[in-house]
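Annex B. Sample input.
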Amino acid sequence: MVVKEKTVKERAFPIKQPFKSWVREQIESEDYWFHQMELAPGLITPGWSNPRLDKMPHYGLPGSMWGMRVLDVGCAEGFFSFEAERRGAREIVAIDSFPDSIRRFNICRNALGSKATGYLTNVYDLNRKTFGTFDVVMFYGVLYHLRHPLLALEKILDVCTGTMLMQTATYEEPAAGQVALAKFNPFGMPSGLNKENFDPTVFWLPNNLCVKAMVESVGFEDAQFVSTNPLISVCISAKSPVQKAGEHPNEMNAPWS
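Annex B, continued. Sample output.
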């Protein structure tokens, strides 16, 4: 019997793994997961946050996102990006400033067969020439991590021609009454499900009035609380003053020109 020698390509990729085995291997290759997400039947990422139960019911995501162009700021592993796609969004751009997050995002994207695109960049880099404009901007769990939250909101306004949905951790001081204020943590604070970790990037914890004031001060209109929990967080919906369908950037005129 003549045994055919393997080609270079066959030696480089010797086995076609069953899909479920490949997904399990990808999940186990990561030391950390934030979101619990089912990537294949029975295969759930070991994150400490279950966004389907803990976040999605409170974050104001439209029931139908058919035809929308969506931006997910601070996407982590991409739960809300993939949920927007499931609800009919035509294009999803996801950004995160951590390389590990984008790597895990791409694991999930490939496992789910998603067309959402993840970019390693941060909110301060947003501009319509590079990214275009969006019907919905999801800005969940990011504001309190930023040294320059108002600048971030201005950048989001520049690319939002529809609705911004923003969630942030908050801090309520009963003695403040109707005063908009924020607590500043210059060196971070405990974080995690049971406060078992320390996060050096939790800087600003505004109260509910301050959240609304910040959103309106940069130019968003019709700011409405979607949900509030005075001890934990708030979610707010706000409209761009210019309501127009989101548009893909003109690649003949960006971003180098």
